[in-house]
Write a structure and sequence with these properties.
The complex is a heterodimer of chains A (109) and B (316).
Chain A (H helix, E strand, L loop, with lengths): L4 E3 L1 E3 L4 E3 H7 L4 H9 L19 E3 H17 L3 H27 L2
Antiparallel strand pairs in A: 3-4
Helix pairs in contact in A: 3-4
Chain B lengths: L5 H5 L7 H15 L9 H15 L2 H11 L35 H7 L22 E7 L1 H6 L1 E12 L5 E12 L8 E4 L15 E7 L5 E4 L2 E8 L1 H6 L1 E5 L6 E5 L8 E4 L12 E7 L7 H14 L10
Parallel strand pairs in B: 1-5, 7-11
Antiparallel strand pairs in B: 2-3, 4-5, 6-7, 8-9, 10-11
The chains are: A mainly alpha (109), B alpha+beta (316).
C-alpha cells in the first residue's frame, strides 16, 4: 500500500500557542490553564497581555511540555496547583544546575 | 506469567498496616514519578508501584491477593486457579489510573481488565464538539534528528463497534520527522485525533519525540556525548584519531599528555538547529592487555625505564 506521508508541524522554540491550542493539546479546561498562569507555573510570552483578555495570551511550545507534566503530577501524586508550580520550578532549577555543572566540569579539566 | 510480589515492590512487610502502605507508596511515587526521576527505569517502576498500591490499598483486594499469593514467590510461574475469587466482592471502578492505566497481565488475570478505563474518555459537550486531541510517543534514532526521516507510527485507539463493544482499533501513519527535532518536543498532526461530532473538526494528534537509547552516544538537549577510548601512546604522545559522529567519522587531534576523562568539544556537531548543539568527546584510556611474552616485556621495560608512580599525589 502506498501510504501518504503526513507532514506535521514541529512545535519548537519559535512556535507560539494560543490558550485554546494549549487547552486542546493537553485536554484541559481554560480555567485550569488560567490557574496555572495565576500560580506562576506557566507564563504567556506576551507578558503585557496577562491582565487582558485571555484570548490574547500566547505560549511557547515548552509550555505544552510543562502543562502536561503538571497534569501528570496532579493526577498521579495528587499535588495542588501551588505544589505543582513549586515542583516545576525546582525541576527547572535542577536542570539548569546540571547544565552549569557540565560546563564547569569542562572548564576545570 | 510471573507472580508479582506487591509487598516486595513497595518494600513493606506482609503485615504492614494500611497506613504504612499508603505512606510508603506516596514516598516512592514521588521518588519514581517519570517527570521527576532521572533513573532510566523510572516509568516501569512507577507503573509497578501504582499497580501494587491499587491492590494493597484496598482491604478486599489485599485479602484476596494474600490468599492467592501465600503459595507463590515473586517471578514464579503463576496461573490463577479456577473460581479462585469466589467469596470476594470487588467494587471496582474507583481506579485513579487515569487515561493510561495499563496493568500487567498478572494483575488483569486476577482483577480483570477494564477498571477505570471508561472514565474521562467521552466528555463530549453538545452536538458539534471538536474531536479530542491524542498523544503518542514516537521513538526515533538519533541519526533521524540529524538527517530527518519518515517513520511509521502505529496507534491504538479504543472505538465502539456496531455491537456496542469497545475494541482497540489499530492504525498506522507515515510521518515525516523533520531534521533538528529534540527529545521531548511535539509534532502536531492536524485532524489526526478523534473525529469531531456533527460538523465540528477532528482533533489533532501530538507525537512526542523520544530518542531510542544509542549504543555509543548520549543525548542532552542539543548536545551529544561520546566516550572515546585512546591507547596509552596516543594519549601520551598526541595523535590524530578517527571519531565517529552521527554524520560519519571525522579526524580529531589529541594533544600530547591528554589524560583520561578530558572533555573535548566538537563545535556544532550536535543536533542541528538554528543554534546547533555540540558533540563532546570524553577521553578514556584503554590499556592493551599483557597477554603475550612480547607485551609483558614491553610493560616490564616501561616499568624499569619510566620509574613512574601514579600515586605520588596520594603521598605513597
Amino acid at each position: 500500500m502506498n501510504q501518504k506521508i503526513l507532514n506535521g508541524i514541529l512545535l519548537d522554540e519559535q512556535t507560539e500557542l494560543s490558550l485554546i491550542d494549549l487547552c486542546c493539546a493537553c485536554s484541559s479546561s481554560e480555567e485550569w490553564i488560567i490557574e496555572l498562569v495565576e500560580e506562576g507555573a506557566l507564563e504567556p510570552v506576551n507578558l503585557q497581555s496577562i491582565g487582558k483578555q485571555h484570548e490574547q495570551w500566547l505560549f511557547t511550545a515548552d509550555s505544552l511540555q510543562k502543562a502536561r507534566t503538571a497534569k501528570r503530577l496532579q493526577r498521579d501524586l495528587n499535588i495542588n496547583l501551588a505544589g505543582i508550580a513549586l515542583a516545576l520550578n525546582l525541576l527547572e532549577q535542577i536542570e539548569s544546575l546540571e547544565a552549569r555543572l557540565r560546563c564547569l566540569e569542562i572548564s576545570t579539566q | 506469567m510471573d507472580f508479582k510480589d506487591y509487598y516486595e515492590i513497595l518494600g513493606v512487610k506482609k503485615d504492614a498496616s494500611q497506613d504504612e502502605i499508603k505512606r510508603t507508596y506516596k514516598k516512592l511515587a514521588r521518588k519514581y514519578h517519570p517527570d521527576v526521576s532521572k533513573e532510566a527505569d523510572a516509568e516501569t517502576r512507577f507503573k509497578a508501584l501504582g499497580e501494587a498500591y491499587q491492590v494493597l490499598k484496598d482491604p478486599e483486594k489485599r485479602a484476596a491477593y494474600d490468599q492467592l499469593g501465600s503459595n507463590y514467590q515473586a517471578g514464579q510461574d503463576f496461573n490463577p486457579p479456577p473460581n479462585w475469587d469466589a467469596g470476594f466482592e470487588f467494587n471496582g471502578g474507583d481506579f485513579a489510573g487515569g487515561d493510561n492505566a495499563d496493568y500487567s497481565e498478572f494483575f488483569e488475570s486476577i482483577f480483570g481488565h477494564g477498571f477505570g478505563s471508561t472514565q474521562g474518555r467521552h466528555q463530549r459537550r453538545g452536538h458539534n464538539a471538536r474531536g479530542e486531541d491524542h498523544h503518542a510517543k514516537v521513538l526515533i534514532d538519533l541519526e533521524d534528528a540529524y538527517l530527518g526521516a519518515t517513520r511509521s507510527v502505529t496507534l491504538q485507539s479504543p472505538e465502539i463497534d456496531s455491537s456496542g463493544h469497545v475494541v482497540n482499533k489499530q492504525r498506522t501513519l507515515k510521518v515525516k520527522i523533520p531534521k533538528g527535532v529534540k527529545q521531548g518536543q511535539h509534532i502536531r498532526l492536524s485532524g489526526q485525533g478523534s473525529p469531531g461530532m456533527g460538523s465540528a473538526p477532528a482533533g489533532d494528534l501530538y507525537l512526542i519525540i523520544e530518542f531510542k537509547p544509542h549504543s555509543i552516544y548520549r543525548v542532552d538537549g542539543n548536545d551529544i556525548y561520546l566516550d572515546l577510548p585512546l591507547a596509552p601512546w596516543e594519549a601520551a604522545l598526541g595523535a590524530s584519531v578517527k571519531v565517529p559522529t552521527p554524520l560519519g567519522p571525522v579526524d580529531l587531534k589529541i594533544a600530547a599528555g591528554t589524560p583520561g576523562g578530558r572533555k573535548l568539544r566538537l563545535k556544532g556537531r550536535g543536533i542541528p538547529s538554528k543554534a546547533p548543539g555540540d558533540l563532546y568527546v570524553i577521553t578514556q584510556l584503554s590499556i592493551p592487555p599483557a597477554n603475550s611474552d612480547a607485551a609483558k616485556a614491553l610493560y616490564q621495560k616501561m616499568q624499569e625505564e619510566l620509574a613512574y608512580n601514579p600515586r605520588s599525589k596520594l603521598g605513597v
